[in-house]
């Protein structure tokens, strides 16, 4: 159990890090994400007291000058030297949940944090992994372009379409969880691969679920629970069956539904956007143009 003197930080809560860090430049706090959270910081010289993180913390730093960081994890001291070469190599750091950690840095730094929920990680591929045996190890200065790409993709969706980013964030969290089970677990986990896609009846079940919930904030967790499989295998098998990710299929179906409604002259563009599950008319127009090559208004005039 955490000692009383240590801070327990739950990054799913608003302003969780405000006791030792300034407000982030960008945060997923208002986007409604559940299994993964993100914050982009510009930090002054800082000393973080001993804390217990409720989530696994993935640090994606943007080193712009030589920096020395002192980290103490479970009583062991790590003194690391950083510079721009690490940024070029896409180096990350992984701080496991519920491990006592303190740190000190004497220079200003810019970095991004991804916070991954331990329960989500443990159950992301439950067909292949015993959830009770999932533990994450500390990693410092680890080159990992995939994790950096996922972090940057999540930041991009927050910057451009935060209000409609929940399903996309879940998809990225699932990919990140599978990667962590393979490379950052204290035990070796082997995720089974399937040559075939979903059985026809389960694929039909997935299609029907999406169709019935197009106007809602569709959850990847809820779809996979409906089918009785993990998020990881649902995403993998769905793509094998359809040639597209669940997120891409969801957007495609929303666009197809909007095309039907655009033929009904009594409905406004705003009403159609809401009914088809788009966050706003701007997001609707962007997705519609991506799939059709024209705007909703141009389609309506055809």
List the helices and strands and how they pair.
Elements: E1 7-9, E2 26-27, E3 36-43, E4 46-53, E5 56-61, E6 67-73, E7 76-82, H1 84-88, E8 91-95, E9 101-105, E10 109-116, H2 118-123, E11 139-143, H3 145-161, H4 166-183, H5 200-212, H6 220-227, H7 231-242, H8 246-262, H9 269-275, H10 281-292, H11 296-301
Parallel strand pairs: 1-4
Antiparallel strand pairs: 2-3, 3-10, 4-9, 5-8, 5-10, 6-7, 6-9, 8-11
Helix pairs in contact: 3-4, 5-6
Question: Could you explain how this protein is built, in words?
Answer:
This protein has 302 residues and is of the alpha+beta class. It folds into 3 domains: 177 residues, Jelly Rolls (Sandwich); 44 residues; 53 residues, Orthogonal Bundle (Arc Repressor Mutant, subunit A). Helix content is 40%, strand content 21%. It has a 6-stranded antiparallel beta sheet with strand order 2-3-10-5-8-11. A 5-stranded mixed beta sheet has the order 1-4-9-6-7. Helix 3 packs antiparallel against helix 4. The radius of gyration is 21 Å and the shape is globular.
